[in-house]
Amino acid sequence: MDTAEIVLQAAQLFIALAGLIGLVVTIQQRTNSDNRSEWWKRYTWSIENIANDNERVRSAAWQNTKALYQSSLITKTEKALIAGLALETLNDDNRKQDDTGGSDAPRNQSSGTPNDC
Question: What share of the chain is helix, strand, coil (3-state, %, to 5)?
Answer without folding.
Answer: 75, 0, 25
